[in-house]
Amino acid sequence: MSRVDRPGLPAGRWVAMTPTPGLVIDEVEFPVEEGKVREFALAVGATDLQTVPLTFAATAGHWRDQAAMVSMLELDISRVVVGSCEWEYHAGVRIGDRLAGARVLTNVAEKAGARGTMRILTLETRLHRVADGELAILQRDTVIELAS
Length: 148
What we know:
Number of domains: 1
CATH class: Alpha Beta
Number of strands: 7
Low-confidence stretches: 1-10
Radius of gyration: 18 Å
């Protein structure tokens, strides 16, 4: 249930809402810190500890309230699996940059499965370099809520 103001209802009343495409889930801004780049590079087996690994954008998840996302999308976390994560790289990211972007629900679909109907949600985050506003990374995540 989501808190919304609707004409004819008392302000702030809780009403059922189905998340729809265009819903902004959250906004994130985080630094590309040298120490974190080094830790991440070591974790993925990179030998160049000064170059930002392409998958570094995954660390944006540590700057977000994932429980709030689950609540906002009305997901039953016990039935959620990650369908996919993908990144498109548009501009380089360097140590010292700050990245910022909004995570937006771009698609909601249902699909019949062996145990019932699954809900498939697609989320996109466009991470821009704060200094110049240039789009650096587009992250697309697919979340699947299995049938109960």
